[in-house]
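Render this sequence as a predicted structure.
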Amino acid sequence: MTVPADRAEEARAAMLELFPDGFEEADRPGVLELVAYTDPAGATRLWRAFGEYSWSEVPEDWQHRWREFHRAVRVGPLWVGPPWLEAPPDAIAVVIDPGRAFGTGAHPTTQLCLQLLIDLAEDDRSLLDIGCGSGVLSIAACKLGFGHVVALDHDPVTLEAAAENARANQATV
C-alpha cells in the first residue's frame, strides 16, 4: 500500500492493528509504502480498511531468496556467516543458519556484543544468553573459550535453530 507522506502515521497505526505481527515499510520521496505478507483473510481486512489496494504473488522460492543478500560479518578474529559461504582460514568461524530465528551477526548491537565477548574471553567465565535467537552470541562465546554457556529463549522455533547451529559449530551450549 502506498500512502502520501502526510498520512503515514495514520496508515502505520492501521497496519499495526491489522497486522500486529509486522509489516514492511519503505520511505520514498513524498510517500510511504507499506507491505504486508498475508493470506486471503488479511487481504479482505486490507480492502475493508483502505478500499483499493494492490497485491502480487510471492515467488515460490521466497524461503531461499533472502540468501542472495545475506553476507558474512567480521568482528576481530570472529567470522560470522552462513553455511553457504566459506570463512577465511585465519578466522574463528561461527557458522549461522538463522532459519526463522533472529541473529545473523549483521546488527550493530550484535557486533558490539561480539566485541565485548572477545574482550572478556577467559576459560573460567560463564555466559547466560537470554533471548538467544539463532545462538550467534552463545556459539561465539564457546568458540572464544568461555567455560560454561547457557542459551535461553521462549520461542521453540528459535530454540531449535539455536540447537542446530550449536551442533553445526560443535559448540556445547
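Summary. The CA atoms of residues 46 and 52 lie 8 Å apart. The helical segments are 8-18, 40-50, 62-65, 108-120, 136-143, 156-168.
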